[in-house]
């Protein structure tokens, strides 16, 4: 009897210890698995508001969607993620194509996120900001650059006045898909006094050249909490991720570079949100970053 008890104790200790080791090894956030974007009835859900803010930049009232997390209360304080759309979209693109509220609700139910407000703006800062007609027209493409002023001077002040947001750079993240991925890199890295967390999923040709994106390498190293770039291996825009990654590596700016199978679509962008949202507003271990590149596909450009 006594031996049996000792054996049970031994087995219990062994399983607890191995469990601990496993938890340690899982510090890497893994890509999404089946069900991550399936609506679950029996969990708490966040809420989506449509807001209208006055934009002095554009001279109109502009719309954005705001996701507040399960258990949201005005008496608490929240981190904020600004989540940007692509060239063919508007403030509803993430909602229509990516079900971000389902992905985030599921992650909250598993205790994997720090509570955050997610703002989905319209990143085409012009009077007619609909994604109609020729979406590649020069004035429409230019409006994605103009959005930097709208974001910094109009939208962020509106959010921070009307929502219980923490108003420090360490509590603001910016991420986006394609044109929005380019915006996230341009605006995030260009305004490190405003953002500490930057995520770019399949960044588009609007992404500034690396030397312009990160002109002050030491400042970026000091100020950035996390820089995350992901892209599909068969995306025609992969070169914009590759050249940014190559420069960051050369200058030893810590970042996550994750290349996964796929093209230029929401499969990549949903997984980008899934991974990035779990990493932000938490302590970061940059010694893990290389493991994301190893976990991903090797798509080094031909050396010619
Ligand atoms: C381009 C190709 C793609 C471009 C933009 C995109 C401005 C954007 C794609 C997207 O947002 O999905 O040449 O030029």
UniProtKB/TrEMBL annotation:
Classification of source organism: Bacteria, Pseudomonadati, Bacteroidota, Sphingobacteriia, Sphingobacteriales
Protein name (Swiss-Prot/TrEMBL): Enterochelin esterase-like enzyme
Entry keyword Ion transport: no
InterPro entries: AB_hydrolase_fold, Esterase-like, Mycobacterial_A85_antigen
Keywords, sorted A to Z: Signal
Signal sequence annotation: 1-25
PANTHER family the record matches: DIACYLGLYCEROL ACYLTRANSFERASE_MYCOLYLTRANSFERASE AG85A, ENTEROCHELIN ESTERASE-RELATED
């Amino acid at each position: 009897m006594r031996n049996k008890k000792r054996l049970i104790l031994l087995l219990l200790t062994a399983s607890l210890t191995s469990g601990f080791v496993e938890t340690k090894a899982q510090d890497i956030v893994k890509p999404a698995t089946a069900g991550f974007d399936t609506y679950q009835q029996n969990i708490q859900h966040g809420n989506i508001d449509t807001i209208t803010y006055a934009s002095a930049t554009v001279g109109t009232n502009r719309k954005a969607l705001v996701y507040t997390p399960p258990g949201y209360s005005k008496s608490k304080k929240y981190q904020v993620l600004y989540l940007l759309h692509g060239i063919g979209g508007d403030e509803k693109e993430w909602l229509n194509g990516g079900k971000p509220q389902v992905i985030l609700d599921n992650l909250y139910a598993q205790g994997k996120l720090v509570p955050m407000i997610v703002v989905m703006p319209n990143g085409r800062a012009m009077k007619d900001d609909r994604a109609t007609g020729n979406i590649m027209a020069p004035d429409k493409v230019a409006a994605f650059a103009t959005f930097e002023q709208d974001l910094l001077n109009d939208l962020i002040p509106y959010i921070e006045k009307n929502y219980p947001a923490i108003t420090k750079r360490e509590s603001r993240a910016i991420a986006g898909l394609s044109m929005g991925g380019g915006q996230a890199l341009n605006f995030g890295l260009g305004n490190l006094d405003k953002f500490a967390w930057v995520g770019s999923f399949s960044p588009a040709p609007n992404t500034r050249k690396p030397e312009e994106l990160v002109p002050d390498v030491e400042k970026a190293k000091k100020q950035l909490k996390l820089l995350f770039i992901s892209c599909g291996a068969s995306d025609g825009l992969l070169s914009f991720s590759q050249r940014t990654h190559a420069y960051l590596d050369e200058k030893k700016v810590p970042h996550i570079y994750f290349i996964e199978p796929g093209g230029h679509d929401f499969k990549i962008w949903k997984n980008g949100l899934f991974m990035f949202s779990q990493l932000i507003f938490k302590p970061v271990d940059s010694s893990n970053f290389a493991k994301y590149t190893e976990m991903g596909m090797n798509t080094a450009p031909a050396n010619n």
